[in-house]
Amino acid sequence: MSLMLSAAELADLRAEVRGLLPDTAVISRATTTTNSSGAWSETYSAAGTVVCRLDPFRMTTGEQVIAAQERGRAWYQLSVPWDADLRDGDRVTVSSVTYELVQVHDDHSQRIVRRAIVSKLGG
């Protein structure tokens, strides 16, 4: 049996959850430039600011095997408003710490928040 929410109920839940997002994230998006010899470089610039919540994230065994090269990295779950413009390849900065988006979760219906797995850059 599925739980169907009305549009008004869904809007109310989204508003309630927004109040539980205590931090602010600056979303940065890469632009790629190519020089005359064909070498390319990425530059990140701010693409938006959203309220957020950052929680520690513990990978399951299967995910650890897939990401074995990522040993020692600190993983977090980022929660932002349901309609935030998060994309693969983005970076977010929360409290002066920058994280890279590892995976954006878009595969559920009646989304109340948008979630992503992030990893701290530089350590």
Mean pLDDT: 85
* Largest β sheet strand count, sense and barrel closure: 6 strands, antiparallel, barrel
Provide the helix percentage. Answer: 10-25%
- Count of DSSP helices? 2
Key words describing this protein structure:
single chain; 123 residues; mainly beta; 2 helices; elongated
General description of the model:
The chain is mostly beta strands. It has one domain (7-120): Thrombin, subunit H. It has helices at residues 7-18, 61-66, and strands spanning 23-34, 40-56, 75-81, 91-94, 97-105, 113-120. Strands 1-2-3-6-5-4 form a six-stranded antiparallel β-barrel. Strand 5 and strand 6 form a beta hairpin. The longest helix has 12 residues, at 7-18. It starts with 6 loop residues before the first helix and ends with a strand. The model has no long low-confidence stretch (mean pLDDT 85).
Q: What is the element layout, followed by pairings?
A:
Elements: H1 7-18, E1 23-34, E2 40-56, H2 61-66, E3 75-81, E4 91-94, E5 97-105, E6 113-120
Concise synopsis of the structure shown:
With 123 residues, the chain is mainly β. It has 2 helices and 6 strands.
